[in-house]
Amino acid sequence: MNAEVTDLVLTVIVAGVAAALGWTARTYLWKRKLNRKQAFFGLPDNAESLLVVNREATGGPDLTVTRHDVSALLELAALIKDCGAHAQIVAHDAAQQGFGERTEFCVGHPAPNRRMAAHLASLLPGVQVNSDPEPGPDRGAFLIGKEQYRLEAGRSEYVLLARLTADQGHTARPVFLFCGQRAVTTQAATRYLSRNHERLARKHGNNTFVLLLKVVNSQAYGPDVVELVADVTKAAQTPIPAVVPRPSHRAS
Question: Where are the transmembrane segments (predicted)?
Answer without folding.
Answer: 6-29
